[in-house]
Specification:
Layout: H1 11-18, H2 55-76, H3 81-93, H4 100-112, H5 116-128, H6 135-147, H7 151-163, H8 170-182, H9 186-198, H10 205-217, H11 221-233, H12 246-259, H13 262-274, H14 281-293, H15 297-309, H16 316-328, H17 332-344, H18 351-363, H19 367-379, H20 386-399, H21 402-414, H22 421-433, H23 437-449, H24 456-468, H25 472-481, H26 490-502, H27 506-518, H28 525-537, H29 541-553, H30 560-572, H31 576-588, H32 595-606, H33 611-617
Helix pairs in contact: 1-17, 2-4, 4-5, 4-6, 5-6, 6-7, 6-8, 7-8, 8-9, 8-10, 9-10, 10-11, 10-12, 11-12, 12-13, 12-14, 13-14, 14-15, 14-16, 16-17, 16-18, 18-19, 18-20, 19-20, 20-21, 20-22, 21-22, 22-23, 22-24, 24-25, 24-26, 26-27, 26-28, 27-28, 28-29, 28-30, 29-30, 30-31, 30-32
Amino acid sequence: MAAKALRSSSSSAVSAASEGKLSSLFTYPRRQCPRTRHPPQEPAVQIAPPPPKSKLSDTQEDQTRLALFLQKKCKSGDFTVDEALRHFDRMISMQPSPPTSSFRLLLGALAKKSHYSAVISLGAKLESVGLLADYAVLNILLNCFCNARRVAEGFAVLGAIFRRGHRPNTVSYTQLVKGLCLEHKIGEAVGLFMKMFRSGRRPNIVTYGTLIGGLCRSGNTSVALKLHQDMVSSNGKNSVLCKPNLVSYSTIIDGLCKDGSLEEARKLFLEMKHSGISPDVIVYSSLIHGLCSIGQYTEANVLLNEMVDQKIPPNTITFNSLIEVLCKEGKLKEAENVLKVMIESGVEPDMFTCNTIMCGLCFAGKIDEARELLVQVVSKGCLIDAVSYNVLINGYFNQGSTEEAISTYKEMIDEGVKPTVATFNTLMKGFFQRGRVGDARNLFREMKRHEVEPNTSTFTIFIDGLRKNNYLSEALDIFHSQDPNIKLSVQTFNSLIDGLCKAGDLEAAWDLFHRLQKGGLGPTVVTYSIMIKGLCQQGQFDKANELFMKMEANGCAPNVVTFNTLMRGFCQNNEIVKVIELLKKMAERSILPDDFTTSVVVDMLSKDENYKEYLNLLPTFSA
């Protein structure tokens, strides 16, 4: 999979890389005496003491020092926050006060260095001495509130702009849109964007790009695409005369690729080129990753060659995207070829590359090669991270080598690499799968010693592991006593509901089922299937059927497992007509039966002498 322009690079790197396994790639005046009655002597030389410094000279010196700071250090960004704070304190105590432009320059320099909290603090001081009135200074303050994810206070500054007789400009609105997007208030960001038109302010390309970025990050790529189309046509609802740029194109293309909408991404890519905007490495990398994720490696390679032809050298991200997808697909030979091209083109593989390949090797059962690759990386002076160890630990567990997994964890600690929550989650899951509940409990306590906070996945693994190892009571105790700030997953509820159903405690299972509904998570098809099975096991077939009927009304469509569960219950209760009705509903919803469905039907027919009659009533399923 070598790109043709990449072949001109050092071939020796490739040959070395290709030898053997995949793991080888890698500072006083004198006093005058009083008169005496002694005979007169020659008068001493009078030395006048230096005049005291005037206040005016002090002020001039301060102003000179301030001007030097503002004109040189602020403009170059070569200053510290403490230095800026000292100059600010001198400025507000000066009489007369320095011009507003001086405050603007200092605050603006702090904002450029992302010291948002410092600017906000200085803004409060300006307000307290009555100096916060300049429009530009207010805009800087608004910008800092929004970037600090304090958009509500940003709107308060907008109100101050209005009260001081200023009219907010496009920049003000754009910053507020950005702040809303950063706080994931996408609906409010879109609403403010539309209000701009009513206030007579037209959004510019930065405003559009900000909102498009927020929409794409929140998974609303289709809305971002519609916004883009309004810009392109210039005939949208608001008659916007604003052309998309490279940033807006690359943002939407990346969003579409992540959503799997490759056709739309391709169309936008061609539109971009026809508009005279040359794609950059980010656009190409997004498309290449998207194409690989759906198995279109040939097209991804075509784009890689096109990049080289256009003199756009692929970067680490480009190659890592290809290698990652290929390793996930188990295509290690193809991943090796991409790695060779990467080295040949002079792009240095990073730890992500190494970890990705290690993960692919472990997935293929080649854990010794993965370990060898890690040794090679360490020998080259690279600092390995927790991810590398996590990959190996998981690989050893999957291979059944529990002691090797534990040994790797100890090696990680000995090497001074701090374990992450993923490390503990991987270890606990492995211990529970092998019934080593005591080790899992000890590990859960050990997290505090390493200052690692458990997350949702940790609690899911721990509670589910206890339940599956017949410690249901302990699992329930942890569930009911956990920190309310930790949001438990649906999977945690499902595990406990399943355990309670199997223990025959349907009342407690129902309580958890209703708690799940009230908690804002909502039961999934798995939750419903578990409850239906529990009801059937207790002989409550009518209640099970009633719950089944409520599923779709609650926006949850049953799957083949749900149908099978209820059918098995009806079959055990010898309600063959109801089984046939369920089969017909499956056919209507184009849900294909599986082996379990077949076994249920065979079991049903073998129990009844009139099986031929029922056989004729069975529906036809189309694949």
